[in-house]
Amino acid sequence: MYVPDEDIHIITSSGDQTCVLWDITTGLRTTVFGGEFQSGHTADVLSVSINGTNSRVFVSGSCDGTARLWDTRVASRAMRTFQGHEGDVNTLKFFPDGNRFGTGSDDGTCRLFDIRNGHQLQVYYQQHGDKEVPLVTSIAFSISGRLLFAGYSNGDCYVWDTLLARVVLNLGSVKNSHENRISCLGLSADGSSLCTGSWDTNLKIWAFGGHRKVI
Q1: Beta bridge partners of 193
Q2: Strand partners, 102
Q3: Residue 16 DSSP SS3
Q4: Where does each WD repeat begin and end (predicted)?
């Protein structure tokens, strides 16, 4: 993931249980987070998100079921570990204010955590009756943070109200929606539209003025 406000660094996550800060001008590793350090992840690291208000801070999600908070200036230990998920943490994203972040997991839930005190603030889960619970594969926040977009392994894309913890809309129920797993989500710079990518080989762009598909 590209480090904002810096033109020369990216952060990657890996199956070797570490995150790495790279200098893209030299191709060399600058810092390794985790690995032999006790506070590091104990399984594959699947995702990272960099704080938009402080680019020295990032969070990582792992197959060990945890998310961890890091400061790029202190590689020897995670600043905080966040628990609660009962499956792999596939995706995470910082909340717009930089004080919170969301996660999505194989356990079918999204969760909201506060980096200041480590508390879990909210759980987002939709009942599916006797059906198999779909995995959360990708998430994104609206610019205000009031909406959480969550993509799932069954092709659904829920729009959650972050305060009320209820689904406002399921883009997966809209005509001509995706026919396979949602693999990625991206919000436009002005917050007016969402792009969804899927294993069905399609990208779809949704405009939220009328919840309509543009492309």
Answers
A1: 207
A2: 93, 112
A3: coil
A4: 38-80, 82-123, 175-206
